[in-house]
Design goal:
By secondary structure, the chain is α+β, with helices and mostly antiparallel strands. Helix content is 20%, strand content 31%. It is built from 13 helices and 39 strands. Strands 6, 7, 8, 9, 12, 13, 15, 16, 20 and 21 form a 10-stranded antiparallel beta sheet that branches. It has an 8-stranded parallel beta barrel with strand order 22-23-24-27-28-29-30-31, surrounded by 4 helices. α7 runs parallel beside α8, α9 runs parallel beside α10 and α10 runs parallel beside α11. It starts with a strand and ends with a strand. The N terminus is likely disordered. The chain binds alpha-D-galactopyranose. Alpha-D-galactopyranose (GLA) binds next to loops. Alpha-D-galactopyranose binds next to loops.
Length: 714
């Protein structure tokens, strides 16, 4: 941090390890964006104030209004504004005349005041030196005498350099989250909004901007994500000096932004970073920052246990003897946590009834869940339970007792999704009831894990007074999670919403795992996971081996590929493992052993994702001096010889011990060449420069196979 003076202009710099930002701080005005990009030397600053280096062009206002950290509407800013608000149709514009910047331990607090429109804005901005991630949030206070109606409020307004660029973003649906798209940024604004009330399957709250020809490992890439599980917007727009303005924040429904005099509205955090090491560099920065934000029971992450989830094995069809025998087989295979999914509670024989009645079904579980939980625990596994606290089926005792507890649009009939309604968590009595109901289960049973689902979009999301409750509902769900965690601090939470509909950095302040998708088809899953890993770290990515054929696509893939894809995240099994043939059982067993001995590396450090020619997909996890390399082949080869994989992370001045760590046992890849025999026995020593510049030779691999290497610098 430095306050520097050049001529009349003052500058303020924040430096991380690999990035810097520089603001110009004109007296009484909002700070101006001068730079955000790769690290500058501590003493580098602009040669002069912005106003001195850009004389007014023809047909311009007599007062230049350059891009600030909070471009406001109406006073000569002609692009999207960070704030749109009014007071009963008046006070539509803001012009900040008061500005204070405070810096405490690398955290900037920028306070902007406009006494005319009665608006005060406080922006918090912190550049974390360890991750190079900027965390930005904005608080808006109504200082006027009457209500202020906020239409749009950005959490962050960021700058991108003037250069050709592409935006990479993710769309999707249930069973196909993180579907990657890329578009050239032009003169028209790029805008993405989500109105589904959840982070949603179809609009992940984040994106990348790749400058020039930037790619996976090279070139300058910027990334932004909103730590928020609700409605959101992101927009990128070219401004008149060729730079681009990137705005992101919570999406407000009509009326949601009404502030009484003295009232403050807080945005979610936006996490933003850039790296000249390509998209992988951005992912590594994000992972570091999110790890630092996580709150684990006991203060630190325990090794991520292998899961067995009952959903795709049994769906709603629970029988105690069958569940016990599934648990027996799970324990034999090395599973460490057994999660009882949907179907366990009163009246839950299908998805039309039962939600809201969180007591064990008396027919399926005449003695409650205790016999199953005790059985699981006696086998040495932890016991987890599925719940969907925000939801209620009209066909439930809860709804019959409280038909007024559901969110609604007043004057319209209720609208179900998957036959369910959403409870209004903004009501204290509803949140108290849910705390008591879920708490009673956690208190009575040895449950150390809760899978917390949300299986519909948040539409018809008004309260009894007729006001939109989208944002308040998300905040109330976070508060309920936090309250349960305070009362039961040993319990971990998995966030889920029809698979990955609640995948975001916001829920990770309360949860410890995200169920990335209901799609267990290995190649589709791999692509979903690659999108997920662009923003969120692998240890929180729930990743299961499913049945063949896959229930979501009907396709069959070999066990080795299914296991190789699942082992790159937080591994689990989600199939009836009692019906596996001997080969598949052996394969699963060996991947579980591999996962257990490698999870320390898989779940810490950096990841690098890559594609080679001939359809070879790879992923490295760890540190440049010691990493695991997953290599996956989905389609059959088209080449006579296998390619080599260039490993940009390998240190060119070290020598590496290279071993095949997993994937030898099976038909997976065709044996060939002494070299690979050596790699799977003792390993071989290879120069880092060779790996970095020429690459690691690959064995010929069959379609649907996986092989894993470990590379350790000597
Ligand atoms: C959602 C989840 C699944 C499963 C079902 C249960 O679809 O994503 O994993 O828990 O709900 O109804």
């Amino acid at each position: 941090m430095s306050g520097d003076k050049t001529g009349a202009a003052r500058f303020l710099a924040l430096h991380g390890r690999t990035t810097s930002l520089i603001l110009e701080t004109p007296v009484g005005k909002a700070p101006l964006w001068r730079y955000w990009g790769p690290r500058l030397p501590d003493d580098a600053s602009p040669p002069c104030g912005l106003r001195d280096e850009r004389p007014s062009p023809s047909f311009s206002l007599d007062r230049d209004l350059p891009l600030s950290v909070f471009p406001a509407f109406g006073g000569g800013w002609f692009y999207t504004a960070a704030l749109k608000a009014h007071r009963n149709g008046e006070a539509f514009a803001q012009a900040f005349t008061g500005s204070r910047v405070k810096t405490v331990e690398g955290r900037l607090t920028i306070t902007l005041e406009d006494p005319v429109s009665g608006v005060e804005v406080e922006i918090q901005m912190r550049l974390d030196g360890a991750s190079d991630v900027l965390t930005i949030s904005t608080a808006l206070t109504n200082r006027g005498a009457d209500a202020l109606d906020v239409i749009d409020l950005a959490a962050a307004a960021l700058v991108l350099p003037a250069a050709p660029a592409r935006v990479r973003y993710f769309t999707g649906r249930h069973n196909r989250e993180f579907d990657e798209r890329e578009e050239l940024l032009g003169a028209a604004a790029w805008r993405r909004e989500n109105r589904r009330g959840l982070a949603s399957h179809d609009a992940f709250p984040g994106a990348l901007v790749l400058m020039g020809g930037a790619g996976r490992d090279d070139g300058l890439v910027y990334g932004v994500q909103i730590a928020w599980s609700g409605n959101h917007f992101q927009s990128i727009e070219r401004i008149d000096d060729g730079r681009r303005l990137w705005l992101a924040g919570e999406g407000l429904a009509p009326g949601e932004g009404r502030l009484a005099p003295g009232e403050t509205m807080m945005t979610p955090d936006v996490l933003a970073t850039c790296s000249d090491k390509g998209a992988n560099g951005v992912a590594q920065n994000f992972h570091r920052a999110i790890r630092a934000r996580m709150e684990w029971p006991g203060g630190a992450m325990a090794p991520r246990p292998v899961h067995l989830n009952t959903w795709e094995a049994f769906y709603f069809n629970h029988r105690l003897d069958e569940l016990k025998s599934l648990a027996d087989e799970a324990a034999r295979l090395g599973v460490e946590r057994f999660v009882l999914d949907d179907g366990w509670f009163k009246g839950r024989d299908n998805d039309r009834s039962g939600l809201g009645d969180w007591t064990p079904d008396p027919v399926k579980y005449p003695q409650g869940l205790r016999p199953l939980a005790d059985h699981v625990i006696a086998l040495g596994m932890a016991f987890g339970l599925w719940v969907e606290p925000e939801m209620v089926n009209p066909d439930s005792d809860l709804f019959r007792a409280h038909p007024d507890w559901a969110l609604l649009i007043r004057g319209h009939p209720l609208l179900t999704g998957r036959n369910q309604l959403v409870l209004d968590l903004t009501r204290e009595d509803v949140s108290d009831h849910l705390f008591a109901a879920i708490g009673a289960l956690l208190a009575a049973l040895p449950i150390s894990y809760v899978k917390w689902d949300h299986n519909r979009d948040l539409a018809f999301a008004g309260d009894v007074e007729g006001r939109a409750a989208y944002g308040r509902q998300v905040r109330a769900a976070y508060a309920l999670m936090a309250r349960l965690r305070r009362a039961y601090p040993a319990v971990e939470i998995e966030a889920c919403a029809g698979g990955g509909g609640r995948s975001d950095a916001g829920v990770l302040q309360h949860a410890h795992r995200i169920w990335a998708s209901d799609c267990l088809d290995a190649p589709v899953r791999l692509s979903i996971q690659r999108g997920f890993l662009q923003f969120l770290p692998p240890e929180v990515m729930g990743s299961h081996i499913g049945a063949a054929p896959a229930h979501s696509t009907g396709r069959t893939h070999a066990m080795e590929l299914r296991a190789g894809v699942a082992a790159t995240g937080h591994l689990g099994l989600e199939l009836d493992i009692r019906s596996l043939d001997a080969n598949d059982r052996l394969t699963i067993g060996s991947w579980i052993e591999f996962y257990k001995r490698s999870r320390g590396l898989i779940h810490s450090g950096a990841i690098w994702i890559g594609d080679e020619i001939d359809g070879l997909l790879w992923q490295a996890h760890g540190a440049p001096e010691d990493f695991i390399l997953f290599v996956l082949r989905v389609d059959p080869t088209r080449e006579r010889f296998a390619p080599t994989i260039r490993l940009a992370m390998a240190d060119p001045v070290r020598r590496y011990r290279v071993r095949i760590e997993q994937g030898w046992q099976r038909r997976g890849w065709v044996m060939g060449g002494d070299f690979f025999n050596r790699l799977s026995d003792d390993g071989a020593e290879i120069s880092g420069a060779w790996l970095n510049r020429s690459g690691l030779p690959m064995p010929p691999m069959l379609a649907d196979s996986a092989v894993v290497f470990r590379l350790t610098a000597q």
